[in-house]
Design brief:
heterodimer, A: alpha+beta, Rossmann fold, 7-stranded antiparallel beta sheet, 4-stranded antiparallel beta sheet, 38% helix, B: alpha/beta, 7-stranded mixed beta sheet, 22 strands, 44% helix, elongated
């Protein structure tokens, strides 16, 4: 759950009275843009991306205009621009117009959680406006601090002093940056980054730190972000329709983590346990439709709901329905298998049979009762299967599922289809 | 600010040695002890650890206890209350919901100055709360394990604290040895411990660290404590991407690190473990590199390319851990702790390819599972037949389903269109056993049905006659007969099939035609069983059946056994016994593959007799004699298919092969229209009223009566409307052979004349305000409409099928001309479809045309035949509904709540 850009960032910064560049959204009229140019001398046109977009600093994604013609031309160029960062591609949906902020200094500032210090940390440099990774380490100051007391003015003063920052920027930053801890700490953030903060001279000669870009990420397990009243569509692009539907079932009892791996995958795995998730995701690669973790002893109802949703989205294209986990410690195998089996039976009853092969590798409490229930259901549905106990290496079971998938692609799918649909040829 | 612990760390760490992580001296307080998960897990931990839980908390439940085999654990409202009651503890286990975890930590730290360790089991604790928890515990000198972990365990001390490491049988996984485990995955902590056993390695301390963003007891602390633990000679780590916890470690004992999650670099959000999402420099590849540097190796260990050093090895697959560890330990001169236990090869415990040929290398055989699972499997394998969950079956069916788009109904997932390819008797068998019989079994089914179709002297036949004479409709006539065929009339057959099932049910016979040594069974047969199967008197029907069976090519172990018993005892087989043996043969595969329940199998002979009765009673008693049915010698009848018998009963003559096929198609098309049809509702209502939760109480003949009485002149009898319409058109046309395309009639002209007349008729009726004017039957459909030329796909399917067989039907041809003429004359806005009901009418009319033309059949006879045909076909679907509702339904589940009923007076 990430937010980037000033359109919504400016609204969040207002909660803590942190100065921000003036910004207009994609709906801004020509007159409004003209007025913004007149007021600030120039505007920056930036595409609006929903969710996280990775680094985009040097991607030519910022337009700059001192007149309305250029501003509109840049708007046209950037409105639906596509940006690729690594393997992730995102498409813009609109642009913002941000008033230029004249400044001599640009500051980078972020708060995040550090696994090195195992506490919250502030990162600051007065050489901002560039990707932080590109700066030499001695130009950056990382400061861990006690989350019980929070980020204090002295953390900032000391850091800037260590960095030998110009004296004129220290006082304004010391006054304003601690406000960002309130935003970070009170609204469920796990990352907050302002880059650049431009130090704008005021008529009285003092400098005012003005946020000219915004990036933050929220903790999905912390409901505090809901206090901000952000519209849910802001995060919609982070989650597919399938993921959103599963996420509605997200409670602390029983995991329901899913991630769409390949919309054209052919192995759909119900994975139990975070470790199994890592291993199975690794070994299946692009063959998988989804990566999942349904461990944590989900009760029947929750597992049944999850299974229904998974089957609804993926069964049609699935060759191998795969149920995989280690030797469960506390997940009741009978309850989880019963829930999946019932969902499968309901799917067949509603949508008709599908040519699938079921592969299972599992251990844990009530294992045999669970396997027997699944066996009876699959027998009744006419679905072929192989089930392995926890004394078979999990990775070998995954490899077996892959081999079955190959066979399904070659001929298995057609053979099972003929059998399940009960054609006379198949019956002979 | 942190309290001073072990001096080697810049933050608080209290644990010096792994031996201190989980000891027999630790005393535990469990927060939210009565929660769903804790109340299952805590008693097992408590018992395994010799009773280490002193009390638990659950606000508002003070005074309650959590029962364990070692005695009850007291429960208090709060930690303060427990301490005030005199309990002392040094370890807290937290099972609270995520939002309450931070407060729980604060509570237990605030009230217990002796606190040294906290284990947090809860998942989805927010990052904010985690950092606060760390700050509180650092300030107060408390070690934290988790959150989102399964706790810690010590195989030497036989202690586990917190979650369910080792599941419900911790002793199976936590076997004393020399290896310490540290794992980001709770499940893998145990799984790795089990895997290590396969190479003879046991464990010392096992730590499930959790894999949230915050890991409070990290690898650095683990390795420090490992060095100070003399019991641990080596270690295994399971590590996922995300975080710098493994960076800059000092590893002094042989170690295998399993790093999994390279693929996770492609994820843009956490899935599985919350902290398992890497940034730029802490992905799986980076972590592999860190460990390779520690161990001074230049690659990943795999069985094919075993790269390791004395210091350790890096693997990326947990299955490679035992082998890699053994190699590393060997390099250090350290032998395994004990003989290897088991192995990690693929061991299939349950398998069924459903008869689909799988390549040899994939078709792994089922092997005996390790104890105690082998015994459990043996027990579940003794369970015979399917068990269906019970639910309200009102307006629901596990047998039939109509696709609202295609309007094609499926019975047991086979569409009625596909069912047209099977003879009547095959579909009757299929309705109950859910598999179409092969040729031999079809022969047996014909014998079973034909053996009882002659009802000479049967009071059921007299009842039917009486009903017929009273001018009842065909369904009412047949209802009278089936009502007589109560359970008492089929008791012998039901007892016989129960006896045979009892003898064979655990024998797992896959090929009933193959060789099977039943000597043991013969010895098991008790005297009372023999009485149920045999008779001292000759049984005429049985002898007729046996003779017919001898003509079939095939074999059944059940029939063979019955004959053997009779021979050994020098007695005769009862017809009921043979009926039972036939149906056991027909239902065996489905029973063994759990497609049907035992209750269904035992009821099959009853259904069989009812099928025979429906056909038999459709013919008046005058046609049943001691030696013949409808004039056919009973011995000869046993060589007929039941489709032929049914045709003969209706039309009074043997069908030609073409007629036989058309009749088969006709019956299949009528099988079902889903559970909502009135006939199905009648059948289901009758089952529901008997109380299916006790299936033995369901009167199947009464359920047939329910189906039959829920047909009538509007439902089932309405098929005659189309016949009446066609008779009106064709009666004066001199049609000789409706099956010949050379009929010499100008169908287009006949259709156009009719359409022109109809246009005028319709106009006039509208003018006089009659909106109830005559509609043309079987033209148009509420779903298949709106296109320029509309087609009912069911009619199209059958027309094509008949055409492929070279079968012509003038009436169907006329219908196709008619829909076009209706459009061309302006009666309809587009070309309406000929619907599937027309197919039913035209096939029947073609069959009876010559008899009608010759005056041997009246219009009334044809109407009766049309209605009876419907009953024959529909009994296939209704038998399936009756059996389905009996197996799945609840008592009285067809009732409509009063709140949903309306009063319209």
């Amino acid at each position: 759950m990430q937010l980037t850009g000033l359109l919504w960032g400016s609204k969040l910064l207002k909660y803590v009275d942190f100065p921000c560049a003036e910004v207009l959204g994609p709906e801004a009229s020509v007159d409004e843009i003209k007025a913004l140019i007149a007021k600030h001398g120039e505007v920056f046109i930036k595409p609006i991306f929903k969710g996280g977009v990775g680094k985009k600093g040097k991607s030519g994604l910022i337009g700059r205009a001192k007149n309305i013609e250029t501003a509109l031309k840049e708007k046209e160029r950037l409105y639906f621009v596509e940006h690729t960062d690594g393997i992730h591609r995102v498409k813009a949906d609109g642009v913002t117009f941000e008033g230029g902020v004249p400044a001599k200094y640009e500051v980078y500032f972020s708060i995040t959680e550090s696994t090195v210090y195992r506490t919250s940390t502030m990162t600051i440099t007065h050489h901002g406006g560039v990707d932080i990774e590109e700066l030499p380490k001695d130009l950056i100051k990382v400061v861990p601090f006690d989350p019980l007391t929070g980020l204090k003015s002295y953390h900032i003063a000391n850091a800037l002093e260590d960095l030998k920052a110009p004296a004129e920027i220290i006082s304004p930053l010391v006054q304003n940056l601690p406000k960002l801890w309130d935003l970070y700490n009170n609204y469920g953030m796990i990352t907050l980054e302002l880059n650049p903060i431009r130090m704008m001279p005021l008529p009285n000669g003092r400098l005012l730190p003005v946020a000219c870009d915004f990036k933050c990420a929220f903790d999905i397990d912390d409901p505090s972000w809901k206090r901000l009243g952000l519209p849910p569509h802001l995060f919609a692009s982070d989650y597919s329709e399938f993921e959103q539907e599963i996420n509605k079932l997200r409670t602390y009892q029983g995991q329901s983590d899913v991630f769409v791996i390949n919309e054209k995958g052919t192995i759909t795995a119900f994975t139990f346990g975070g470790g199994a998730n890592a291993l199975v995701t690794e070994l299946l690669g692009d063959l998988a439709t989804i990566s999942s973790d349904f461990g944590g002893n989900p009760p029947y109802d929750k597992m049944h709901q999850i299974a229904k949703i998974v089957l609804k989205y993926w069964l049609d294209q699935t060759n191998v329905l795969f149920i995989i986990g280690g030797k469960a410690n506390n997940t009741d195998i009978f309850e989880t298998f019963r829930a999946i089996a019932d969902a499968l039976r309901e799917y067949f009853n509603t949508h008709g049979p599908r040519p699938i092969f079921v592969v299972i590798g599992r251990g844990g409490p009530n294992l045999i009762r669970g396997m027997a229930y699944m066996r009876d259901t699959l027998d009744a549905l006419g679905v072929p299967y192989k089930m392995f106990g926890h004394d078979s290496a999990m990775s070998e079971v995954v490899n077996y599922a892959k081999k079955i998938n190959d066979w399904m692609e070659r001929e298995g799918r057609e053979l099972i289809k003929a059998k399940l649909l009960g054609t006379p040829e198949a019956a002979l | 600010m942190h309290k001073q612990g072990v001096p080697d760390f810049p933050y608080y760490v209290g644990i010096k040695s792994l031996a201190e992580v989980a000891t027999r001296e630790d005393r535990v307080c469990v927060l939210n002890i009565l929660g769903t998960e804790s109340s299952t897990v805590t008693p097992i931990s408590h018992e395994f650890s010799g009773g280490n839980v002193v009390f638990g908390t659950s606000p508002g439940r003070s005074g309650k206890v959590l029962e364990t085999k070692l005695g009850p654990i007291p429960v208090y409202n709060s930690v303060r209350e427990g301490i005030e009651a005199g309990h002392k503890f040094n370890t807290a286990v937290i099972y609270l919901p995520p939002a309450a975890v931070k407060d729980g930590v604060a509570e237990v730290v605030r009230w217990n100055p002796d606190l040294k360790k906290i284990v947090i089991i809860t998942e989805k604790v927010s990052v904010k709360d985690s950092r606060t928890i760390r700050a509180i515990c650092q300030t107060n000198g408390v070690d934290v394990f988790g959150a989102n972990c399964l706790g810690v365990a010590d195989s030497w001390n036989r202690v586990r604290i917190g979650g369910a490491l080792g599941g419900s049988r911790p002793q199976e996984s936590l076997v004393k040895g020399s290896i310490a485990i540290y794992s980001n995955s709770g499940n893998f902590t145990t799984t790795i411990a089990v895997y290590l056993l396969t190479k003879g390695w046991g464990t010392t301390t096992c730590i499930s660290s959790g894999k949230d963003v915050y890991i409070h007891f990290g690898p650095r602390e683990f390795f420090y404590a490992l060095d100070n633990d003399d019991r641990s000679k080596g270690a295994v780590l399971y590590i996922e991407p995300g975080g710098y916890y493994e960076y800059g470690l000092k590893i002094n004992k042989p170690t295998v690190a399993c790093v999994v999650g390279r693929w996770k670099a492609k994820l843009t959000k956490a899935c599985g473990h919350a902290g398992s999402l890497a940034g730029s420099g802490d992905d799986a590849a980076a972590k592999e590199r860190w460990f390779m540097e520690y161990f001074e190796v230049d690659g990943i260990y795999t069985p094919e390319n075993p790269i390791y050093s004395k210091k350790g090895a890096v693997v990326t697959n947990i299955a490679h851990i035992p082998e890699a560890l053994t190699k590393v330990m060997e390099a250090n001169g350290i032998e395994p702790d004990f003989e290897p236990r088991g192995d990690l090869s693929l061991k299939c415990w349950f398998s069924n390819t459903q008869g689909i040929p799988l390549p040899e290398e994939l078709d792994l055989p089922v092997v005996e599972a390790i104890p105690p699972y082998n015994e459990q499997i043996a027990i579940v394998n003794r369970q015979v037949g399917a068990q269906f969950p019970r639910q309200s079956m009102k307006n629901a069916s596990g047998a039939s389903m109509m696709d609202p788009k295609t309007q094609v109904t499926k019975l047991h997932n086979v569409s009625i269109l596909d069912a047209t390819k099977y003879p009547f008797e095959s579909n009757l068998v299929f309705s109950l056993v859910k598999e179409h019989p092969d040729e031999y079994k079809r022969g047996l089914a014909n014998i079973a049905f034909n053996a009882f179709v002659n009802m000479h002297g049967d009071p059921a036949l007299l009842a039917a006659d009486a009903a017929r004479e009273a001018e009842n409709s065909p369904n009412t006539v047949i209802t009278s007969a089936v009502s007589i065929l109560g359970k008492g009339r089929v008791k012998g057959a039901i007892e016989a099939i129960s006896t045979l099932l009892e003898l064979f049910q655990y024998k797992k016979i896959q090929d009933i035609a193959g060789p099977f040594d039943y000597d043991e069974i013969l010895r098991e047969v008790k005297e009372e069983d023999k009485e149920k199967l045999l008779t001292s008197e000759r049984d005429e029907i049985a002898e007729r059946m046996l003779k017919a069976m001898d003509r079939l090519e095939g074999d059944s172990v059940f029939i063979r056994l019955c004959r053997d018993i009779a021979e050994r005892e020098d007695k005769y087989l009862k017809a009921d016994t043979l009926l039972a043996a036939i149906w056991l043969t027909l239902g065996w595969w489905s029973l063994m593959h759990k497609k049907i329940s035992k209750a269904t199998l035992i009821s099959l002979p009853w259904y069989s007799r009812l099928f025979s009765t429906v056909v038999g009673a459709s013919v008046p008693s005058s046609k049943h004699t001691p030696t013949s049915f409808c004039g056919i010698d009973l011995d000869e009848l046993m060589t007929w298919s039941f489709t032929e018998t049914a045709f003969f009963a209706l039309i009074g003559r043997k069908p030609t092969p073409e007629e036989l096929f058309e009749f088969q198609v006709l019956l299949a098309l009528i099988i079902s229209n889903g559970p909502g049809t009135i006939s199905a509702q009648g059948a289901k209502g009758a089952v529901s009223a008997d109380g299916p939760e006790n299936p033995a109480r369901v009167q199947i003949n009464k359920a047939f009566a329910g189906f039959l009485t829920h047909t009538g002149y509007a439902h089932g009898g309405n098929g005659y409307e189309a016949i009446e319409f066609l008779l009106e058109i064709f009666k004066d046309k001199g049609l000789k052979d409706p099956g010949s395309p050379d009929h010499g009639l100008d169908l287009k002209k006949i259709a156009t004349d009719y359409a022109t007349w109809y246009l005028d008729y319709k106009k006039k009726q509208k003018e006089i305000g009659n909106i109830e004017y005559k509609k043309i039957p079987c033209v148009g459909h509420p779903v298949f409409k709106g296109k320029d030329v509309n087609v009912d796909p069911r009619e199209e399917f059958v027309s094509k099928l008949l055409k492929e067989r070279g079968s012509y039907n003038i009436f169907l041809d006329f219908y196709h001309n008619l829909v076009r003429a209706l459009f061309e004359t302006g009666v309809t806005r587009n070309v309406f479809c000929v619907n599937v009901d027309a197919v039913i009418a035209v096939i029947l009319l073609k069959a009876v045309w010559n008899l009608y033309r010759d005056g041997k059949l009246t219009e009334k006879d044809i109407e009766s035949a049309a209605f009876t045909t419907f009953l024959f076909g529909r009994m296939i679907g209704c038998a399936a509904e009756i059996d389905d509702h009996t197996n799945r339904g609840r008592d009285m589940d067809m009732r409509t709540p009063a709140s949903e009923c309306t009063f319209v007076g």
